Amino acid sequence: MSQSKTDPRVVRTRKLIMEAFVDLSSKKEFKDITVKDITTEAMINRATFYYHFEDIYDLLEKALSEVLLINLDCHNFEENGINGDSIVLIFKAITNFQKTLSNRCHRGYEDTIARIIREQLEVIFYKMLLKQNTEEENEALKIAAVMLSWGIYGASVEWRRNSREILPDEFIKSAIPYMMTGIKFSKLG
Amino acid sequence: MSQSKTDPRVVRTRKLIMEAFVDLSSKKEFKDITVKDITTEAMINRATFYYHFEDIYDLLEKALSEVLLINLDCHNFEENGINGDSIVLIFKAITNFQKTLSNRCHRGYEDTIARIIREQLEVIFYKMLLKQNTEEENEALKIAAVMLSWGIYGASVEWRRNSREILPDEFIKSAIPYMMTGIKFSKLG
DNA sequence: CCCGAATCGTTGTATTTCCAACACATTGTA
DNA sequence: TACAATGTGTTGGAAATACAACGATTCGGG
């Protein structure tokens, strides 16, 4: 919360690196992108890259997380609780995010990307659960968040596998009633 | 020539400041633009501004000089010597530059702008004269450059005053024959 | 197999940029 | 007039970035 505002220089530099990376991703596969490519494109020193990121995989994680968060537009959800509408919006955000990813080439890193998506979802669901559950059931809420994130992600896998002719909205809506009873149940637990 | 390449940080920062200034110029008059405005817009620290520029007037000079130089696209001219074609191109560049300026508000600084234009022209003409005169008549060439810069600038003033219905091309072309004899003469001098 | 070129990740030092504070000038306003 | 608010130009010290160099690793070609 009260983190003293970050130095404008790091904001600039991170932005430059991220943009360079996203830019390169649309031209090359991930495996062909070098740190040198990125720093050259971003017009920053290579040593500076390592000041901000452990390595290129660290950058991949953070870049994808950020893009995903922008897709999710989380401020909306964190305020309100979990309900049918928010589930639909989140599901649409994920399928949309994966569509933008398909334009880039991250072959061989599907598992990494899947993990990143689930982790982000988990954080968001946890915050939402905290909002609507004042009591101190933190551990239970964490587990619930994990399950929700895996569930939603799994739904997106299923949708891509053999239901792409159905709109994401329709697809997830059909399952929501059953999801919601599950949520209610976990709340009572 | 051999100036050891400048630190990428200063390139970035100067660019940010210039862009912020050009941006603000299209919204406010120059007299209403503060250093704080610029540094805020450019997202750099105010102290950093003074690391690069003496004050806002210094920025005005350098920004205008740069925009003018871009308009002039000088690399073309410096290679070749002075001739009818280069005169026409330079004249068109000046009138064009002044047209872009008229969209911004620099009221009360017309004299400053005029001086900047003449100074830039003088530098360019001097380089061109050096190219086509190998002998060591540097002082004479400098004077010639001064005269040419004033002359061309004066022509642009005259054009704006009561010949705007004529295209800049036509306007300057009509005078070129007489200009060129003047140049030939100074070369013989 | 070895070699050379390129990238990686790290380090020490120089330079740039940030930040907070200062005295001073200007401006609006009570 | 006084006085609050805002901008100017400067300073010293902290933090971020640049740069050059290093050994280690990877990879493709001879």
UniProtKB/TrEMBL annotation, chains A, B:
Swiss-Prot/TrEMBL keywords: DNA-binding, Repressor
GO molecular function: DNA binding
Tagged with keyword Transferase: no
Gene3D superfamilies, alphabetized: Tetracycline Repressor, domain 2 (1.10.357.10)
Occurrences of domain HTH tetR-type (ranges): 11-71
Superkingdom as given in the UniProt entry: Bacteria
Pfam family, one: TetR_N
Record feature DNA-binding region, as residue ranges: 34-53
Name of the protein in question: TetR/AcrR family transcriptional regulator
